[in-house]
Specification:
The chain is α/β, with parallel strands linked by helices and 344 residues long. The chain is built from 15 helices and 12 strands. It has a 6-stranded parallel β-sheet, sandwiched between helices. A 6-stranded parallel β-sheet has the order 9-8-7-10-11-12, sandwiched between helices.
């Protein structure tokens, strides 16, 4: 007689990049025989439903009481709580889910979060390792075998890939030979993570000079459209803007069509890397050893100033030199090396 699989609800992180970096954890949980349901913010659902390890996605409601009711409708055996917040741990507790796995929390917050966990696992020290491995100890406590690789991978279905080609054709990038280079000037975390938009303009011009037949695409989310429009206007209105009207699933389908993405430390950076798209990643106030793109063929540019990484949303010293010191020519060279563009 075959036993029923453990019904597990995973409370997903709130940020796109954090969800991508958690993909190996989901794969390990699914490989252990669990039936996975994700509890996620609505804007993440279109992406997470494409993860093979996930059976269902429940969207979090603005009202916690409504979310708790949604968690009570199916009978879950356990919850795995990936975020470190009190609120994320309180939802499965209020829903009466018997086993609630998660890290106790950061120092000084244990006394609030710990009682909501059953059991709570001591949060490990980061010790300079990449964020993708942060849940190694949590899986060990659950007696779940660690994934064969901690490098996140996301493979789109043929239908999703075709959707990406259709969306790209709708954007009507200038005809020409490859490569197709995406420029992502945004970063939802805050201004401190954004390379100045004028540098993106200079880079766009430099890439056109190096390889006139290449195509460029300006990628933006709804909150970065003003940056994309400025770059679009300053580069002669020839490189289309795509992304503000797309959900995350559609954005992933478009990113998968790129040959290279030039990006700040951002969710699309992690998403592109998981899709196998090489990135030239620009780091300033954050640590590339912790959150850099994983996998091969990426170039990370980081000035490593004395004040970096500060992890602030805005530069506390008001000069923003950690990113302003990255010149367009250096970024262009990284693109040339990555794409093996012939030197002009």
């Amino acid at each position: 007689m075959t036993s029923e699989p453990t019904r597990t609800v995973v409370v997903a992180p709130n940020w796109v990049g954090d969800n991508v970096m958690a993909l190996p954890v989901l794969e390990a949980l699914a490989a252990s025989g669990r039936k996975l349901t994700l509890l996620a913010k609505p804007h993440l659902a279109s992406l997470l439903v494409q993860v093979p390890a996930v059976d269902e996605v429940i969207e979090r409601h603005e009202s916690d009481s409504e979310t708790v009711e949604r968690l009570r409708q199916p009978v879950f055996d356990e919850a795995v709580i990936l975020p470190n917040s009190f609120r994320s741990a309180s939802l499965p507790w209020r829903a009466g889910i018997p086993r609630r796995w998660g890290y106790r929390g950061r120092p000084f917050s244990w006394s609030f979060r710990w009682p909501l966990l059953a059991p709570g696992v001591r949060r490990p020290r980061q010790n300079g390792r990449h964020q993708t491995e942060d849940f190694r100890e949590l899986l060990a406590a659950m007696e779940v075998t660690a994934p064969a690789s901690w490098i996140p991978r996301l493979e789109l279905s043929p239908a999703a890939a075709e959707k990406g080609r259709t969306l790209l054709a709708r954007a009507q990038p200038a005809p020409g030979s490859r490569p197709l280079i995406g420029l992502f000037p945004g970063a939802e975390f805050g201004p401190s993570k954004r390379w100045p938009w004028k540098r993106f303009v200079a880079l766009s011009r430099d890439l056109r000079r190096r390889w006139p037949e290449s195509r460029q695409l300006i990628v933006a989310g709804p909150k970065e459209i003003w940056l994309a429009v400025r770059i679009y206007e300053e580069t002669g209105k020839i490189h289309p803007v795509i992304g503000p009207d797309l959900d995350l699933g559609q954005l992933a389908a478009v990113l998968a069509q790129l040959d290279l993405l030039v990006t700040n430390d951002s969710g699309p950076m992690h998403l592109a890397a998981a899709l196998g798209v090489p990135c030239v990643a620009l780091f300033g106030p954050t640590d590339p050893e912790r959150t850099g793109p994983t996998g091969d063929d990426h170039r990370v540019l980081y000035t490593d100033r004395w004040c970096s990484p500060c992890f602030r949303r805005r530069c506390p010293l008001l000069h923003h030199r950690c990113l302003k010191d990255l010149q367009a020519e250096a970024v262009g060279e990284a693109c040339v090396e990555n794409l093996e563009i012939p030197q002009s």
